[in-house]
Amino acid sequence: MNSLRHKLQAAGQLSPTDWLVLAEAWWALLGFQLVLRWMPFNRLEAFTRPAAGNSRVIPDALAWAWRRQKLVSMAARLHLVRMTCLPRALVLRWMISRRGIPAQLRLGMSKSSRGMFAHAWVEMQAEMIGEPQDIAERFEILKGCE
Fold it and tell me: Where are the beta strands (DSSP E) in the chain?
């Protein structure tokens, strides 16, 4: 019951714009999750890049991107299927890039005694959006993704 109360309080704090972004993120997550199965990754990744000449100035773009990341994460938690880091990162980069703001998709690998692990995240202005600052130290960025 405590969890439901917390979710309802969080929902009550969303603005109408947040609700629209949340819906956009939910549908985009579904779309990217499906397309990841059939489209070559390089074509899908290219789709998330900003179009040439499509740049706008958004005051405090980092705070704007962090808010989008929180809403993408919320949409992922509300989804019918488990959303991994890759569709979440692709959607976040797509949402940022649609506004003409440059953002980089990072793919990293980590090897430990427990096995190999992969992770995807978004960087903007040399800051990892929605990630701990040591993420780049824990994962070696794959060549071509730097």
Answer: 104-112, 115-124, 127-129, 140-141
